[in-house]
Every structure is written in C-alpha cells, then in structure tokens.
Amino acid sequence: MSEASFQQPDRRKPEPLWYQVEEAIRAIVTSGEWATGDQIPAEDRLCALFGVSRITLRHALRNLEEGGLLRREHGRGTFVRSTTLVAGTRALTSFTQEMRNMGVVAGSRLLDCSLTTANAAAAGALEIEEGDPVVRIRRLRLGNSEPIGIQTAQLTAARVPGFLDAGLLQGSLYEALERHYGIVPVAAREIYRVGAVGAGDAELLDLPAGSPAFVVERITTDERGSFEFTVSIMRGDRYEIRSTLRAGRVPSTSRS
User: Fold this and answer.
1) Is the pTM of this model over 0.85?
2) Predicted confidence (pLDDT) per residue in 197-216, tens digit
3) Alpha helices, DSSP H only, in 67-172?
4) How many CA atoms within 13 Å lie on the side-chain side of 89?
5) Which of 37, 107, 125, 198 could bridge to 142 as Cys pair (CB 3.0-4.6 Å)?
6) What would the CATH number be for the domain defined by 85-241?
C-alpha cells in the first residue's frame, strides 16, 4: 500500500485526532485496499504513518474493533474481519445506515414484495386485526456483496398506499417511508433468539442447512403507533451481539 493512502489528521480541525484516524482507517478498508483477512500494519508503523501517539491510535483501533471492522488476535496482530453486523446498544437505524456506519457497503436482493394478510403474530405486532392487509417485503441482505441475513418485513398496508407500484425498494426502506409517507421511526423493540437456518434459507445464505443463526423480531413505531414487523434470520458467523456491563449499587431493601 502506498503511504499516500494514509491521510494524517489535521490538528486545526475540531474533530479529535482519534476520530480522524478512525475515519481514515475506515476509508482504507472501505476502498478495498485492505481486504477481508488482511493484517494491518503494526501499531508503531501506524503511529508513524498517521503522525499520532500510541494512545490516540489505540483509541481509534478500539472503536473500529467494537464496530466490527477489525479483529485483534492476541500475539498475532490486528486483521480486517469478514463482514459482521454487531448488535448491541445502538441508535434506531435502518440496515443500510447501520452497515454504512461500519464502513461496509450495504446491499440487498429482493426476494418477494406482495400484498398479503396479517397472521396472528403480525396482527399483534402491528396492532391490527388478523387478516387485515399488509405489504410483505422479503430481502436477502448483503454486506460488501456477502450474504448476512434474510429479512421479512410486514408493513400495515393502510399506512403505505400504492407502495407496490411506487418502486421504493432500491435503497433504504426507512428513507423511502419517510420521503413518500412521512413515516419516521421513533422507537423499536427487538427480541433475539437462537435458531437454525432452514433448507431454503440456507441456500440463499450460502450455508449448510441447520447452521446456527440469530432470529430477530423487530416491531418499529412512529408517532402514530406500530407500522413495521420484521423477522430476520441472521448468519451466526457474521452477526454478533456485544454489550458493556457496568458495576452499580444494588438498591437496598427496607422492611417495615
């Protein structure tokens, strides 16, 4: 790699040095100069190339590791990891935005988009009657062109009139819903379960049938209530859940 690829941080900018280094490394990975599995230069070399201290560099590397872009191996070094969606404490975002935040190019392949009726689970999630019309969108989700999961979203049809004829699935679904229907997500509830990939989904995900997967149910609401119920089957080897636990005082119990 040419040393010209390493953009040293501008100390006149308001952004912290570690943030500028983090974004510079993210850009190198996103451009493909560092491919999946590549070992990145050692810390002392990176410090010299970016012109920053080891503390600053480690701050940037830690953020990229926690974001799923890099993988540290004790005694070996730091590597560009395979496309992995890391779940944990995060903002309410679309898949497209979440992947973008990780420096990964999001993609999808539309498997089905049709008008159907709500079953009991969808009706309960969307707060409608069983049998009411819903728009069903089934997509293979990709990160850097690699399959990550299969998402099946159901939207309350009454909230999105004309959706099937509008050609709104070229990019982010949430962006399309906001632009065409004024639907802006304000909250979501997610439930994670461990499951196995079925035969039909396994072929799409390029996995053996029965491989471990995360099954994620998501109910998304706007100011008017629930509008989306999504069930995702995410590859167990490309999806992680991370959380930070902090010590705290245990509330005292009083007796009277």
Assistant:
1) no
2) 998 899 999 999 999 998 98
3) 95-101, 120-126
4) 3
5) 107
6) 3.40.1410.10
